[in-house]
Amino acid sequence: MNIHSRDVDKEVERSAAQATLDVLRSFIAEKGADALDGPHLTALRGLLPAAYPELTRKYPDNFDADAAYRDTLPDLQNGPSSSIRGENRVIQHVGISNFRLPISFATKAGGSITLETSVTGTVSLDADKKGINMSRIMRSFYKHAEERFSVDVVSAVLDDYKYDLESFDARIALRFSYPVKVNSLRSGLSGYQYYDITLELVEHKGVRHKMMHIDYVYSSTCPCSLELSEHARQLRGQLATPHSQRSVARISLKFEQGEKLWFEDVIDMCRRAVPTETQVMVKREDEQAFAELNAANPIFVEDAARLFAGQLSADARISDYRVAASHQESLHSHDAVSVLTNGSTFASNSIDPRFFESLIHRG
Question: Would you list the DSSP string of 12-26?
Fold first, then answer.
């Protein structure tokens, strides 16, 4: 017959267990870890924290992190493949975004201009590699920061961090706002128009691709609304105005190796395709001229995509391209949008759900 107390099977409360651990911690603090030398107490040592060493809180201004010391530093990102969390898969893009620095760009007129530039730099990561040292991407840029940037210089940066990070694919995107002085339509005034531009260089499977993205902001007058307004004037003597709105086209293009394509060249293509670019400096005669220019060039969003495509297709320096247009209508509470692609580079069956939200001029 087995005899036991009635409390043997009773579940221990968490609070009771915590209280017991608190007593043991007080005991070890007073008596020392060696006090746990009994056959049963020794097993409890693993449950108790080791004595925490005394650490200084004073910052060591004169400490020298020499090469020998640096060799002792842990490097978790370059750890063994056994430390990888999740599925062992290739990562197509890993790196940094919105790293900013001033960069000097050449202008078509032969000068240069220094612009605050947002840099995105990524590489591919093999399935058996834990991670990359992201600061190497930034260091690669600073090696060339004093040079006037061109596609050749960007290519050299790509070479540097691709080699440093031992990667098979790499990408660089430089995003900036590019100023161009433009004249008003009739008054003779002039002012700076700013164009959001991204210069992109991609190496994929050993082949390099040069790409440019530019946002062009223009006014679009609805052809249907224009005709309806004229109908009201002619048949009923009713004053009416067609609706027009600020509109944005994002032109993305790939240009051929060895070809030089200036930012100003693409801007001129956009102006030839859709001449109703928004104005900078305006007096009354300019505002009247702009109204006449819009009436002479009414445009649906479908028209805009095809007109831009016509200019891009006519330039032998350009191969693949995409035109994405958004007319942010004053008639509707929604926008009218269109996307036209040529070639495989920008073709996609899916569109980022928030892509069209980025087609907006923030002023």
Answer: PPHHHHHHHHHHHHH
CA distance 194 to 356: 20
Beta bridge partners of 183: 190
CB proximity list for 317: less than 8 A, separation 6 or greater: 255, 256, 259, 260, 261
Do you know the residue count of the chain?
363
pLDDT tens-digit map of 229-266: 999 999 999 999 999 999 999 999 999 877 789 999 99
Question: pTM above the 0.85 mark?
Answer: no
The Cα–Cα gap between 69 and 203 comes to 36
Quote the tokens at residue 245: 């709105």
Q: What's the one-letter identity of residue 135?
A: S
**And the tokens for 73?**
């530093």
Query: From CA 283, how far away is CA 186, in angstroms rounded?
Result: 8
Domains of the chain: 14-55 (no CATH), 177-363 (3.10.270.10)
Beta bridge partners of 100: 118
What one-character-per-residue DSSP string does 200-222 give?
EEEEETTEEEEEEEEEEEEEEE-
Q: Which amino acid does the sequence have at 38?
A: G
Measured at the alpha carbon of residue 348, what is the angle toward residues 259 and 300, in degrees to the nearest 5?
A: 85
Contact call for residues 151 and 91 (beta carbons, < 8 A):
no
Q: Dihedral sign, CA of 164, 170, 176, 182?
A: positive
